[in-house]
Amino acid sequence: TTHKLLLLPGDGIGVETMEEVKAIVSFMNEEGLASFETEEGLVGGSAYDAHGKAISEEHMKLATESDAVLFGAVGGPKWDGVPYEVRPEAGLLRLRKDLALFANLRPAICYPALAAASSLKHEVVEGLDILIVRELTGGVYFGEPKEITDLGNGQKRGVDTQVYETYEIERIGRVAFELARTRGNKVTSMEKRNVMKSGVLWNEVMTRVGREEYSDVKLDHMLADSGGMQLVRWPKQFDVIVTDNLFGDLLSDIAAMLTGSLGMLPSASLGAPDERSGKRKAMYEPVHGSAPDIAGQGIANPIAMIASLAMCLRYSFGMVELADRLEKAISDTLNDGLRTKDIMSEGAREVGTREMGAAILAK
Ligand code: NAI
Ligand code: MG
Questions:
Q1: pTM of the model
Q2: Which of 41, 64, 171, 200 has its CA 20 to 30 A from that of 96?
Q3: Is residue 87 part of a domain?
């Protein structure tokens, strides 16, 4: 089967790192390892420069018709003054919203070659391989009311509302349980049921879904604050962590720091399976932004972007073996001592974006 892939490099280092992904995708096509039909579009500041919007309707249509979207990064000081509705980030938010990407997957993997150079305790991070599944479209970031009201006596009240309904918890839970089956078969659900009603419901629903649909997967519950502590103390106790939008935002940033550089971290955002085809809408992107401080210098680390392609192979197309090979190529290249500036350490060889990409492709 031919898969339709939409590439949206965006701005800054998004463009530079996507070049390395394009080379790998072309290679896979040429070698008959996969069959991709790729289209490329504009998003973010570059889209604004071209037609005054952060993403055009034409490219939104392409995104909804694609089997997966690979997204680089958007933004930069050049667009600081543009109107709020068309700022570069609006393109990203529009994609997440229109594709209804409710599940955000953030792996935290510590490659052996980097564990040695980590500022954290070697035994804590070496061999780390966990996956945080964050609910992305609900919770306190979206719940109503959401407002600042003037109380009239020189006081104001800021209000955000945490809301979760059963179906939202069920569907993110199912994503986590399904993923756990392909990994270590363990899910840890995190909430604060001790102080939040939405946490009580979260806990109830996860427990029921686990019991009724995934009794083969081990399910633990942990209070989210304690979970944060455990993530730093002994992260290897976890396999898949599933949590809400707010806690997931914080916990995934903590987990990111266990792995080294922002330049190493991929992510995936998945939607619900289509009722007819069973296919999920999905977008894959590095966690980092457009890095204006290093853009255009050819020194950005392309690994987060390349690892995002590996996630795409794995989760959208079920090409597990090819994904494994790509991830192993990354790991082997690091073992050879090649490093971009952001992960450079003593005794290693510093290379630029192109050289790192080419070395991984050669592997
Ligand atoms: P950033 O992630 O772009 O950069 C943070 C720091 O990490 C910088 O020092 C940068 O040089 C470094 N860095 C990031 N990725 C790297 C890589 N692949 N290789 C080597 N070094 C890397 O975050 P920042 O500086 O806060 O934001 C810059 C712009 O990116 C802003 O306009 C922001 O709005 C946007 N942004 C976009 C995101 C997206 O498109 N998903 C996410 C985060 C920020
Ligand atoms: Mg965050």
A1: 0.92
A2: 200
A3: yes
